Amino acid sequence: MEHFKEKYPGDEVYFIMGADLLVDIGEEKWKKSKELVQENKFIVMARNGIDMLAVIAKSPILRNADDGQTFHLIDKGLAMEISSTYIRDEFQKGGEPRYLLPESCYEYISTNHLYQ
């Protein structure tokens, strides 16, 4: 996140993740979870079976940072079960997850032979 904030100083930078990672961060399973939450903004995609508001309410780290601007919760009936791990696994298995990524991201991964 620091890299992108430095690279794009005039832009708002968001950490995009699934609600499963929100749970992990709230339970401090990530190194420097508290700093990560205090210094960044997040877009969180719904996952089946995870109540994002309850996750935030249960975690002091998340609850204390919930100022109405830090977490942008995307639920709208859509639960994204496709994760970054799934996309990496597709590349490793020789799959073509082109439809899951922006074209520029797909091209970068393909050109640089990432995850193979």
Automatic annotation (TrEMBL):
<keyword id="KW-0067">ATP-binding</keyword>
<keyword id="KW-0662">Pyridine nucleotide biosynthesis</keyword>
<dbReference type="InterPro" id="IPR014729">
    <property type="entry name" value="Rossmann-like_a/b/a_fold"/>
</dbReference>
<comment type="function">
    <text>Catalyzes the reversible adenylation of nicotinate mononucleotide (NaMN) to nicotinic acid adenine dinucleotide (NaAD).</text>
</comment>
<keyword id="KW-0547">Nucleotide-binding</keyword>
<dbReference type="Pfam" id="PF01467">
    <property type="entry name" value="CTP_transf_like"/>
</dbReference>
<keyword id="KW-0548">Nucleotidyltransferase</keyword>
<feature type="domain" description="Cytidyltransferase-like">
    <location>
        <begin position="5"/>
        <end position="89"/>
    </location>
</feature>
<dbReference type="InterPro" id="IPR004821">
    <property type="entry name" value="Cyt_trans-like"/>
</dbReference>
<dbReference type="GO" id="GO:0004515">
    <property type="term" value="F:nicotinate-nucleotide adenylyltransferase activity"/>
</dbReference>
<dbReference type="InterPro" id="IPR005248">
    <property type="entry name" value="NadD/NMNAT"/>
</dbReference>
<keyword id="KW-0808">Transferase</keyword>
<comment type="pathway">
    <text>Cofactor biosynthesis; NAD(+) biosynthesis; deamido-NAD(+) from nicotinate D-ribonucleotide: step 1/1.</text>
</comment>
<protein>
    <recommendedName>
        <fullName>nicotinate-nucleotide adenylyltransferase</fullName>
        <ecNumber>2.7.7.18</ecNumber>
    </recommendedName>
</protein>
<keyword id="KW-0520">NAD</keyword>
